Amino acid sequence: MNNQLRLVCLLLLTITSVSGKVYKVANPDAFNKAAFQVSPGDEIVITNGSYTNWELAVNTHGTLQKPVIIRAETTGKVVFTGDVQKPVFQLTGSHTEIAGLTFMGCNVMKAKGGTGILIELKASRYCRITDCTFTKNRVLAQFMPIVVISGKAEHSRVDHCRFIGNINNQELQVKVTEDAVPLYSMIDHNEFKDKERVNWKVFNGGECVQVGQEPVLLGTKYPMAVVCCNRFIRCNGEAEVISNKSSGNKYIGNYFEDCEGELVMRGGHDCLIDSNTFKGGKGGIRVNGTHHTITNNTLSGLRTAIRLMYGMAKGKIETGFYVAASDCIVCNNHITGATTGILIGDSKNADWTGKFDTQKYPSRTMQDIAPFNNTVSGNVITDTQTPIKHNEN
Hints:
393 residues; 42% strand; 42 strands; 13-stranded parallel β-sheet; mainly beta
């Protein structure tokens, strides 16, 4: 054997020694057997085909350098469909990645003993959902998401996925509870597209991204999530395309086009909204809460680009169904072609009597506390009927 051939053989042996095993599966039993056997760097490959009735609890553990990969044999050709009453994939391990799967035409429902979710990262660490497609799925109960980050999950990532034409659902939820707050979630480079208005009561429950669910009671929880570089095209599910209901999150570099809803600070504090682009549609950025920073955003062709809202309470200590916008920085934004550029003081004296449970949410019902102590400066506003409108008095 000559030296060159010896070198080639040595390289092949080296590659084989560092490559993980590949387990090909086509049913839940085979998947579970493979998941029990995998080591860091191994792959579970789901063979091309259409699948129903998978309910998998996945507790695999990779490493930073060698994650466990769960992937489609061919991206887009492994399709999950049909009725879903429990999570199709529920990841509870660490350093595990789901890639290339398609969920199409699923009927996602609540049933005794379970709730349908397509993928859940539940108390997992450094787990990832990437290059997956979620399209034409339908939920059968209000306020149900199809992808969830929950429990004490840490460093979860959902990226380069497509959410297209789903029906009556929330797309992606970071679930915050009294006992568990997912930390450092990264939601980036996804596409949310062609979402029709939901049919639920008061047209609520159709957000594309929701970080936190109880802004009145749990708005001061700090998930520290980052939502960046996503595209939202014709997302009309409800009034909130992105709904922030917790604190310390960042919304950076996202693109919104022809959406009826807004990027909404429904609750929480200390969030960053920076370098996002809004083009056409009905609204831009709506703000309740304190110490938010809204900078370097570009908004064009909107009715109202940025709204600072009245509330029933002020600061981080008082409890109110809405907290007045205060101590926020609104600077260096570029607004053009709007009816109103920046509205300081929206929903003045709105009366919420009978519209929420005051025992569950101990709050006055009159939205009569004006925004205060906000810094609004350095914004460039052109071709706009009313550049800045004050409605605090």
